[in-house]
Amino acid sequence: MSSFPYNNVVVIGATSGIGLALAERMIENGVFVIGVGRRKDRLDEFVSKHGSDKCAASQFDITHLESIKSWVEGLLKQHPNVDAVMLNSGIQRTLDFTNPQGIDLSRVHQEITTNYTSYISLLTYFLPHLQARGPQSPAAVIAVTSGLAVVPMPRCGNYCATKSALHSLLWSVRAQLAADEHSQHVKVVEILPPAVQTELHSQQPDLVARGLGDIGITLEEFTDAAWAGLTRATTRSPSGRTARIWSRWRRGAGRLSRAW
Ligand SMILES: NC(=O)c1ccc[n+]([C@@H]2O[C@H](COP(=O)([O-])OP(=O)(O)OC[C@H]3O[C@@H](n4cnc5c(N)ncnc54)[C@H](OP(=O)(O)O)[C@@H]3O)[C@@H](O)[C@H]2O)c1
After folding, report:
1. Which domain holds residue 18?
2. Is residue 1 part of a domain?
3. What pLDDT score was predicted for residue 259?
4. H or E stretch covering 43
5. In the chain, what percentage of residues exceed pLDDT 70?
6. What's the structural domain count of the chain?
7. Which candidate among 40, 114, 139, 243 keeps its CA 20 to 30 Å from the CA of 64?
């Protein structure tokens, strides 16, 4: 049996890739998963594959910021035992400042809203429920950033910046909750994946055209490493190449953070 301490997990971005793979790994380990995403056909497939005794689904677009509060309230009414929320949804776009005229700012803002702004609302509306579970009940926010939060890749600078922003925010949220007696049972866990073979890349025409639509480690290899991190109760879980970059970066940043 796994030592994953949560029993009812909302996985946002459970229709493909990392979210779907980790949702299925949770189900294999006896966790009830509520999968979230925009693609209804994928959500239906997820529930019919695993059965409604093991999972449920909620179709929602997290960029609809004004609807997040009522969506979270409705979801928690239906699933009052939620003890962890995995914030995993994300998109990746290119951004090229050598050709500013070619920049579509609406796509840039959509990336910021999906990868960062929505997370602030999701944290705001999920945290009261997790805090209210009380000190005897472990609870968690598990968020997926990226190795690119630590070292950016110029091809997709805004994506990297959203992941850096989220990484920084999680650092502060973790410290705030840990210092508050009514919140310290809520862990803030960050998963920092390396490049993984998912639709994040295979759906980007420029990458596909350059033969890079399937870059990275396999989803299975990543899921094994991420699950090992999640069951070890670490607060940050880098894997693959990211683990090496993270451990070097951390030696310096750890010293710096003590200055605050
Ligand atoms: N693959 C990698 O190399 C890699 C590396 C580092 C970090 N990551 C991060 O890992 C996370 C998962 O990505 P992935 O690689 O598994 O890519 P993916 O297969 O494209 O999955 C992205 C997930 O996010 C969901 N999503 C996107 N926009 C959404 C929205 N507006 N509302 C609700 N759900 C939304 C998608 O669901 P719908 O389309 O159905 O809405 C999908 O389930 C992302 O945060 C990504 O940045 C990936």
Report:
1. 8-259
2. no
3. 53
4. helix 40-50
5. 95
6. 1
7. 139
Q: From CA 55, how far away is CA 46, in angstroms rounded?
A: 8
Q: Is the pTM of this model over 0.90?
A: yes
Which residues are identified as catalytic?
Answer: 159
Q: Residues 165-183: what's their mean pLDDT?
A: 97
State in Å: Cα 90 to ligand 1 middle.
4
137 belongs to a structural domain: yes
Asked whether residue 225 is domain-assigned, the answer is yes
- In-domain check, residue 3: no
User: Which residue lies with its CA nearest to atom 14 of ligand 1?
Assistant: 17
Q: What does each C-alpha distance from 12 to 66, 119, 122 come to in angstroms?
A: 17, 10, 10
| Nearest residue (CA) to ligand 1, atom 19 | 17
| pLDDT at res. 56 | 98
Q: Which residues pair with 9 in a beta bridge?
A: 33, 84
Name residues contacting ligand 1 (CB within 6 A): 13-19, 37-39, 42, 61-63, 88-91, 114, 144, 146, 193, 195-196, 198-200, 216
The model's pLDDT over 66-125, given as tens digits with 9 standing for 90+, comes to: 999 999 999 999 999 999 999 999 999 999 999 999 999 999 999 999 999 999 999 999
Mean pLDDT of all residues in 188-211: 95
DSSP 107-130: HHHHHHIIIIIHHHHHHHHHHHHH
Neighbours of 30 (CB within 10 A): 11
Give the number of the atom of ligand 1 that is nearest the alpha carbon of residue 145.
7
- Centre of ligand 1 from the C-alpha of residue 189, in Å: 17
Pocket residue to mutate for ligand 1, from 10, 11, 15, most atoms within 8 A of Cβ: 15
Return the SS3 of 206: helix
How far, in Å, is the centroid of ligand 1 from the Cα of 200?
6
Residue 191 Cα: closest atom of ligand 1: 7
CATH of the domain at 172: 3.40.50.720
